[in-house]
Every structure is written in C-alpha cells, then in structure tokens.
Amino acid sequence: MSTVLNVALVPRGVTVDPAEVANVAAALSIQIARDFTPIWGINATVSAFTTPSKVPVGYWPIYIEDPSKMPPGAGGVHMDRHKQPYALIETGDQWSLDASHECLEMLVDPYGNKMQANPLLQQAIDLGQPAQQVRYIVEVCDPIEDAQYGYQINGVLVSDFLTPHYYDPVAGPGVQYDFMRAITAPRQVLTNGYISWINQDGNAWQLMNFLGQDGTLRPILRDLSQNALFHRVLQAEALRPAVDRVMQLTDRPAMHSALTHDQLQAFQERTRVVSYAAQAHAERLNVEIAPIAGALAVQKPVDTTSDIPHDPYAAILIDHNFLEDVARKATANFAAELEEAKLPAWTALPWPAGTAPTVLPDSLGPELPPCDVVLITYTADEANAMAALLTPGFLAMPPKSSPSGAWASYTNKYASYVPDLLHGSSPALQSHNLGLYKLIQLGGKKVLCFKSSLHLARDGKSIPIMRLVQQIVGETKASLVITTGTAGGIGGSVQLGDAAITTEVRFDFIRMFAKEPYNKTTLTSSFALTSNTYLNLANTQLIPVNSGHLASSPIPPNRTPQIGAGATVFGTPNVCVTTDGFLYDDAADTDHLQGLGCMVEMDDAVVALAIDQLGASAPQWLSIRNASDPQMPAGATKQESSDIYLKYGFYTSFTSVLACWAAVLGS
C-alpha cells in the first residue's frame, strides 16, 4: 500500500467559519479516497485546522487567504525553503473548487516538475504550430479547471480532474480522460482551461489556453520563453508555479467563470438539502444516544432541535428527483450502475379503450384553467410518476438531459405568498412559483394535474398551502380535489406500493403545529365511488405492468401491490394520518401509529381543512396515498426508511396515480 499523505486545510489571516472548513476538508477526503485514489494510486487525507500554528509537522498545508492581502498571482502550489509543497487559495464563492484543484495537483506533482512526453495537441496544431513531440507539464486540473466541469460532494463543489489516459498518444474507444468524462480526446483543453509544454528541441516553452468570454471561445497560444516572470519563478521554485504565475497575471481572472444561474441555484439547493440531512442525522443521534445516558425514556420522538422548525427529512424527500438520478447515472457511466441506468424508467400502460389520458393546452392567462377534478401532489418523484402515466410527452420536472416537455409554471399571486414563506426552507422561494401543472382529458372530464411548491412540512406557521388550495379551487371551479402521493404504510399488512382511496384524515402533529386546536381531530369526506370497474381494472391489469421495479427493495412486497377502498383496507382503518414531521411505522410501534390509520404523510389533512373552510361552495375531497416505505423492522432508523422512499417512491406512486385514474372515472 502506498504512503498516505496528510494535507491540512487552514485559514491564514482571514476568518472562515470552522464548520465550513471542516465540511470542505471532509469532501476533499471523500473525493480523494473514492474518486482520485483508484485512478492515480495516491492516498491522502485532508484535515481542517483553525490556525496555521495548529498544523502538525509533516502536513502539506493549503492556506485560505484574504484576497485583498494576497499579492497578485500568488495563488497555487509553492515550495517552502525546505522544498516542501504548500498551496495558497483565496476566499470567495468557489473557494472549495480551488481547494480541490490545488490539493489534487499537489498530490500528483508535489514539486511542480513532473512532465509527460507526447504529441502536440491538435488544438495547437490548428493554430499553426508544427506537429511534433513535446513534453507537457502534468497539471491534473488546469485543462478542465472551470466551475462548470466541477461536481459536488455533500453539497461542496470540487474540481474535475484528469486521468493518466489524458496524455495517451492516440484516442481509444471508451477511454476515460477525466473523472467527469467531459473530455473526449487526449490532451484536449476545455473552456477556460489551459495546458503548457516545452518543444522537442527543449528551447521554447509554450502555453495554450481556451478562453470563453462574451459567449465566444478562442484558443490563445503564448510563448513563455521570453517572459521574465516565468523564468524568475522557474529559477526560484519550479515549472508549475512559474506557469501558474503567468496565467494568474494575464487571463486567469477571466478564466475562472462564475457558475451559471441554473448551476448556482442547483448548487445552493443541494447545499441546503445536505445541510438538512446533516441536521437530521444529528437529530436522530440525539434521540438514540439520550436513552443510553439515561436522560430520555423510550417514547414518541419529539423535535430535539429547537432551531429547526421543520423536519429536515422533509427536504430530502420533497426535493429528490429519481429520474434526474437515473439520467446522471447514464451520463456519468458509473460501471456498477450502467446496466440499471440503461433500462427504461417505466413501461407504457395498456389503457382500456376510451380511458387513456390526453394532454390539453395550458392556460393562456395567469389563472389555472377550469376543470372538473384537481389532482394535487407534492414531491418531485410523485409529480414525475403522475406525469409518466397521465401527461404523455411531458414530465413535471424532467431531467436536464430529457427531451420531454415540462409542466407549466403557476405563479399567479406568488408575490403575496412570499412574506409567509420560511427562508432557507420553503421550496417556493427557490422555484419562484406556487406549483407546476398540466391539464388533461380523462374520459369525459377535464383533470388538472398540479405539483405544489408549498408544503406543510417546509413553509411558515401560517400554513400557506391552505390558501393555495383555496385559490386553486376558486380558479378551477373543480367539483373534486384529490390530494395524493407517497406515505409510510402503517401495519405489517400494508405492502410496499399499496395505495388507499381514503375519505377520512387525521391530524397527528408533533412539531411546529402540535399545539394547534385541530390537532388529534379527524375530517371526513362525503365522496363515494359509484363504480368499482376501473378500480378492478387498475388492480388486475395496470398495476402489474410496472410493479416489478419494487422487487429489489430491502422489504419487497410479497404480492402485487393493490389499491384498497372502503372503511378498512389491508386489515387497518382506512384513515390517512397527517403529521408535520417524518414519521414511519415499525414493528415496535415506536411512533405510536398503529391503529390510527393505514398511511402516514405530511399534507392531506390540511388540504381537507382548507376545503372544508370554504363552506357551501366547497368541492368534495379525497385522499389517495401509496406506501412508499412499508412497516420497518423494530429499531430501524429514519435514514433506512427514507432510503426506501428515495429508490422506490417514484414507482410506488404509480399505484396511487392509477387509484386517482380509477376514482376520476368511477365517480
């Protein structure tokens, strides 16, 4: 086994949140162990320190500097007087990217003199340079150093890096030239990257960078042989710092492009979700550790983090986009997941004659179009499952690489909701809308499919989703509102993928809304199916088409998932339990859910309450939920339960979508 190198990440003369430094150091350690070492065979750890004086002897430090105090061109890897490497980076929005960049380059070539002989790159030949054998300075991040080629680890932006195949003499099929597979040929330089070399005679140093400015790309060739700065740093330190100094004092400020608006939004959202996940992990450990210390009897969990008004797991479940994950696997070509990624995400259904949905035009004005029925769902996976079956040619939230159309954005009166939304939590503040929608024809009825951007478990104390539901009813004049999506199954007889058509909902709040007067009360709808024909068709002909996707679950269904309706389903009361935190049933009944209902989720009772408040003008309502996580074994954690949702919630939602189809046609 190779020697494990030690790298220190430490602020020097500048204030940086120690937690942020620790998070970046942890991400770099993961990048090295998981991504970098298998390719380059170099082992290292990255540790965070608060001050340079605390860095142990033998560590290679990366100093985080105040940009106003750092001399121009000083960034990058240097040699100290003992010829040991260290790096300087500046604070800023993308400092983690620079830390990753300099760390990886320092590991591959700590002394800045490593070279690789190979043919001159084609981009330089295209600029008029003669084809020849040259020696390249090995810099594993410079050709793809721009932020757009980076990737995230636990919400931390890190740099893409080259593989040794980057210096191959010729291209080969299936060869990986960089970790993210952005480069398609040996010695290719991407936008805002650069590469440098010495010619075959050994008398001319040259550099080519590929600049992207004002929407244009242009390669620029530079002769370093007559550059006094280059030779001065070369004499004092090494090749790599000499090249870096020249670049930083010429085009480098323009080269480090900012993230695009979409990239920045995605990065901020992922960072927020990862933060919530970390908070959730801390919360779970608090609950598990406290009994060991004798400080807490085993009882129904309560919120142990007073500064987090909402359950952090809600963010993970609501924001997760299964289809985006599938697209990412296919694009990244991860070997272990490639075959899975090649499979179709779902199989089209053989709709009975006259029952297939057809998409209708979007509304031309700010208001939602009139319709007979509204289907309201809440998470990305729920909405995409609804779209997969009911809005052919359109996904609610399609992956970036998908050719599919997208549902329309609904923004009417959005600004009036903003004061009631919780900053740092509410998805609507990121999406800048109240929801997404698509209108369809189903049988003789117009049905509005709606994905809400507001959520009981994510927004403010005023529960703005109730106002949104009333606004939807007012604009559409629908006679039936179905609130639908994923849930935790209650009781051992509810299998993964089962769904229930429910006319009774119960409030069971434990967090922000635990003291509301309607907590622990129930609401009942007068809705009734007039025909079971479509329910039977769904159970016997349509659900089995895609239910095979659930077979690989850690707790797979022991039969084909079914839709239940009536006072009792799957041996449990047909009641949907709405809570304001992520609860789940286990064999020990830890959350005291057994006997209350068949499903537990985080929205339906407030939708029913909002509709009931409309009085005589209120439409009927219905709750339809699927078991995206079944009853767990005694002692199972939130993480284990939520992991099942993340992998299977898209597919379990097919059952509840088909239950909506059956309810619309059978009423």
The amount of beta strand, in percent, is 15-25%
Say which CATH homologous superfamily of the largest domain is assigned.
Answer: Nucleoside phosphorylase domain
* Distance between the ends: 69 Å
Topology, number of strands? 29
Structural class: alpha/beta
CATH topology description of the largest domain: Rossmann fold
The major sheet is characterized as:
13 strands, mixed
Shape: elongated
Show unreliable segments: 251-259, 272-277, 279-309, 332-342
Written overview of the protein:
Helices cover 30% and strands 21% of the residues. It has 667 residues and is α/β, with parallel strands linked by helices. It folds into two domains: 4-259, no CATH class; 312-345 and 358-665, 3-Layer(aba) Sandwich (Rossmann fold), CATH 3.40.50.1580. A hairpin with a 2-residue loop joins strand 11 and strand 12 (216-223). The chain is elongated and about 90 Å long. The model is unreliable at 251-259, 272-277, 279-309 and 332-342 (pLDDT under 50).
Q: Summary?
A:
The protein has 17 helices and 29 strands. The protein has about 675 residues and is an alpha/beta fold.
